[in-house]
Amino acid sequence: MNVALPALIVFLLLLPGFIARSRFKRAERISLDYSPFGQIVTEAMLWNCVFHPLWLLAAAWLFGHTLQPLLLLELLSSDAASQAKAIQGIALQFSWICAYFLSLYAGAWIVPNGFRLMITHYRLDRANAGWYVPWLRFNQAPWYYLLTGADFDEEQRPDLISVSAIVNVAGQAVLFTGILDNFFVDANGSLDRLILEKVMRRPLSADKPDGASIAEELERFYVVEGDYFVLRYSEAITLNIEYIRMDRLVDDDMPEPEPAVDTLSEADTQD
Amino acid sequence: MKALKSALAKRVLADPSATLQLRAYLASKNSQPSLSTTVATDDVISLHSAQEGTVLYRLTVVPKAA
């Protein structure tokens, strides 16, 4: 069996960059990476320019093993005699070279994951975080920014997300509204389904009559029983997203919203 | 992926009474017929806990971050 040794060596050398690139990016699609080929290779090469020098420095400083460029060039050459000579040289240091590449691949997986977690934890990628945002923002994850509140400043961050969707049910447009708990994207990065809780529904045609009281408004809604409501994005005609914030009141003179609760409870029992 | 939900929101959703108030708020908010005839609906919910007693929270819709 013939093995294209130079190609194999180049692959082993470049692999850490591709690993690091894939672990650093937060992409919502998982089946295919539609990034331009040039961008993929450039990013991988940049990661290689970081990892290889770091590992070579560490190997030289900690263990006294330095890169032997002549050996590497002989491995990549097409001359069989030079390759054979280089292979013998590699065989003498096989354990060290294996340790170098295995630790490099592990580092290329762990370090970018750590960076990504740090960016997410400290929210360095939110839209108005600073001048460095274009480099840290995960541009292939629009739903992540829309539905996790990652773009909000800490002091302006809402407490929950309300979702209202119009769904065609047996030829009738029905408005579903509830609190967003979870969401999933499909392999292409499109929103697949939303998991809602505390869901209510009403026919879209049952709009509020003029001059209706709050009690009359609420009577039109029916509570959807169950812990979670799965809404497939493909079945939603329109989707409305609202960020809701709950601010603690310091004044105790605000009226209790008991009448509205009673009315909704009555509607629940009628469902 | 988990959506945005603060610890306070989880407490509200775990409390049946507060949940009903939240539902009432959502229902009334969805019922506003037009901007010109917006009715001032009750946007305050109460949450009871053993530590803090009954605490009032005002619900507001915040615009999306830039």
Short description:
The complex is a heterodimer of chains A (about 270) and B (about 70). By secondary structure, chain A is α+β, with helices and mostly antiparallel strands.
What topology emerges from the helices and strands here?
The complex is a heterodimer of chains A (271) and B (66).
Chain A: H1 5-24, H2 37-63, H3 69-76, H4 80-92, H5 94-121, H6 133-136, H7 142-147, E1 160-169, E2 172-185, E3 191-203, H8 214-219, E4 222-223, E5 229-232, E6 236-248, H9 258-270
Antiparallel strand pairs in A: 1-2, 1-6, 2-3, 3-4, 3-5
Chain B: H1 7-14, H2 16-29, E1 44-49, E2 53-62
Antiparallel strand pairs in B: 1-2
What does this structure look like?
The complex is a heterodimer of chains A (271) and B (66). Chain A is an alpha+beta fold and 271 residues long. Chain A has helices spanning 5-24, 37-63, 69-76, 80-92, 94-121, 133-136, 142-147, 214-219, 258-270, and strands at 160-169, 172-185, 191-203, 222-223, 229-232, 236-248. Chain A has two domains: 5-121, no CATH class; 158-270, SH3 type barrels. Chain A is built from nine helices and six strands, in the order H-H-H-H-H-H-H-E-E-E-H-E-E-E-H. The longest helix of chain A is centred in the middle third of the chain and has 28 residues, at 94-121. Chain A is elongated, with a radius of gyration of 29 Å. The N and C termini of chain A lie far apart (73 Å). Chain B has one domain (1-30, 41-66). Chain B starts with 6 loop residues before the first helix and ends with a strand.
Number of strands of chain B: 2
| Quaternary structure state of the chains depicted | heterodimer
Strand content of chain B: 15-25%
Assign the structural class of chain A, choosing from mainly alpha, mainly beta, alpha/beta, alpha+beta, or little secondary structure: alpha+beta
Structural domains of chain B: how many = 1
SSE ordering of chain B: HHEE
Query: Mean pLDDT of chain A, rounded to whole units?
Result: 83
Instruction: Give the mean pLDDT of chain B.
Output: 80
State the end-to-end CA separation of chain A.
73 Å
Radius of gyration of chain A: 29 Å
Describe the sheet with the most strands of chain A: 6 strands, antiparallel
Structure class of chain B: alpha+beta
Helical fraction of chain B equals 25-40%
